[in-house]
Design goal:
Elements: H1 2-27, E1 36-38, E2 43-46, E3 50-56, E4 64-69, E5 72-77, E6 83-86, E7 93-103, E8 106-117, E9 123-134, E10 141-147, E11 150-155, E12 167-171, E13 178-183, E14 190-196, E15 199-204, E16 209-214, E17 220-225, E18 235-237, E19 241-245, E20 250-255, E21 261-266, E22 268-269, E23 272-273, E24 277-283, E25 286-291, E26 296-300, E27 307-312, E28 329-335, E29 340-345, E30 350-358
Parallel strand pairs: 2-8, 9-27
Antiparallel strand pairs: 1-3, 3-6, 4-5, 4-7, 7-8, 9-30, 10-11, 11-12, 12-13, 14-15, 15-16, 16-17, 18-19, 19-20, 20-21, 22-23, 24-25, 25-26, 26-27, 28-29, 29-30
């Protein structure tokens, strides 16, 4: 008899547990099936515009909402009223907007995206040639830096192409004479360089490797893996972090000590993304970059990615006048102490000191 009672009680306990789970499941709210969000994905706005974001949930009444922009929480509220986003300090380019909706202890997410463009067209500059210096026509210029009276330059190429083998060098500004040179691995294509303290940092084209040299001797100190971006193109340094581009319109921020990515901007003018930005130079709080194969330099706000200015240099060394082996404009260096700006190109016979002026 006792065994029968125990068995009945055990069965009742199981039934109660199963019923409890079933009942609890019945009480859980169903997912909101009519969830939607505006603005429509891909909508363009100008920097400074106010973006109104609104979630619709049909007949459902969520407990609360959290809004995120690029995965960063920016707002929480209790109802479905519209939420406005100020864009005046935001980076330009695609921005992801996510609404996280809470109901009955559970959450759902819905996202959209906008494209933020600069509010103004870039300022158009002209230029004046102040002085012309000789430049080694054997250098397929990839990176260019001027510091303390010395021109540092990286020349690209491998033994498998028609350009020549990559090297990093010091050159005399006034004569163009190569003072010192270190050759890279014959299979490696050297690209942009930056000076950080007593070291020179260099990225490579496809090899996903970076180099660190002693600034004085140009001796290779170490290498590091560089998996940032699609390819390695240009570099510059603002005294706190490195900048690197990769053939697209993206400029990556790198830690100056370990060379790992710590952020990025996307470069846009009022028409859209500015692709194939190449050699970089940091000048007075702005990034100067030449656009690959276009003889154009753009001035970029490093905080937002907005193109602030544009300089057409097609008449500096016109294509029709170039020597047979001379290639595209590529190379920007700034003399911080003397406030001199230098421009050259791949295998160009000249390096030009120029001044930019508004039209």
């Amino acid at each position: 008899m006792k065994k029968s009672i125990k068995l009945i009680l055990a069965i009742l306990a199981v039934v109660l547990v199963v019923f409890g789970y079933w009942f609890a499941g019945c009480k859980q709210p169903k997912p909101i099936e009519t969830l939607s969000i505006t603005p429509e994905a891909g909508t363009s706005y100008k920097s400074g515009d106010v973006v109104s974001v609104k979630v619709s949930a049909g007949d459902s009444k969520p407990d609360s909402l959290v809004y995120l922009v690029d995965s960063v929480k920016v707002k929480s509220q209790k109802d479905l009223s519209a939420f406005t986003i100020a864009t005046d300090t935001m980076r330009v380019g695609p921005r992801l907007i996510t609404a996280r909706i809470f109901q009955g202890g559970k959450s759902q997410e819905i996202s959209t995206n906008i494209v933020l463009l600069p509010a103004k067209a870039p300022v158009e500059y002209t230029y004046k040639v102040v002085k012309v210096f000789p430049h080694d026509t054997g250098s397929y210029t990839e990176g260019l830096v001027y510091q303390d009276g010395v021109l540092y330059e990286s020349s690209g190429g491998t033994t498998d192409d028609m350009i020549g083998q990559s090297n990093i060098r010091k050159a005399d500004l006034n004569t163009g004479k190569v003072l010192q040179k270190t050759m890279l691995d014959p299979k490696v294509f050297g690209e942009g360089i930056s000076i950080v303290g007593d070291k020179i940092i260099e990225v490579t084209y496809h090899e996903k490797i970076g180099y660190v040299y002693d600034k004085t001797s140009l001796k290779l100190l170490k290498t590091f893996p560089n998996n940032v971006g699609i390819e390695g193109w240009g570099m510059c340094y603002d005294g706190k972090k490195l900048y690197m581009d990769d053939s697209t319109n993206r400029v990556f921020f790198l830690d100056k000590d370990n060379y790992r990515q710590i952020g990025f901007i996307d470069v846009y003018d009022d028409k859209g993304p500015v692709m194939e930005i190449n050699e970089l130079e940091y000048i007075d709080g702005k990034i100067y970059a030449n656009v690959w194969e276009k003889d154009i330099i753009v001035i970029i706000d490093p905080k937002t990615g907005i193109v602030l200015g544009r300089i057409d240099l097609s008449k500096l060394y016109p294509k029709d006048d170039r020597a047979r082996n001379a290639d595209v404009l590529n190379g920007i260096a700034f003399d911080e102490k003397g406030k001199r700006l230098f421009i050259t190109g791949k295998k160009w016979p000249h390096l030009y000191q120029v001044e930019f002026r508004t039209k």
